[in-house]
Each structure stands twice: as C-alpha cells, then as structure tokens.
C-alpha cells in the first residue's frame, strides 16, 4: 500500500493523527507528498511538470525499473 498526497494537503499531519493509523501505508511509512516547484508535479495547474511527476512516481513505485538519477533529470529539465 502507498498513499500519495497533494502538496499543501494533510501530508504533514497524517503521521501523528490517530485517525490515519489504521492504514498500512501510514503504519509502514509509505506515504508521500507530491513534489512541487514552481507548480505541483501531478496536479493543478496542469503543466509540463507532470512529466517530472511521472518520473518521480515511477521511481517511487518501481525503483527496480526506473533506474535513473531523478535529481539529475530534474536539473536537466530546468536547464532546458
């Protein structure tokens, strides 16, 4: 189980909130916040940064397949 939260959502609170503790992903620390900067990489506003979001999510969920340096890819993206 994995939970992915939008930026500026409840992400910061769920680890300490008793209401979330029944979820396996929370118990095992497999919950994440979508990166952002300057925009949300997965949501609003729609932008080409969703490309970065897909790379981030692929590496998060399938690290054995998505074997690339995400930081280098992001740096390269912003140099374009």
UniProtKB/TrEMBL annotation:
Source organism of this protein record: Xanthomonas citri pv. citri
Full protein name: ABC transporter substrate-binding protein
Annotated ranges, domain Fe/B12 periplasmic-binding: 1-65
InterPro entries to which the protein is assigned, alphabetical: ABC_transptr_periplasmic_BD (IPR002491)
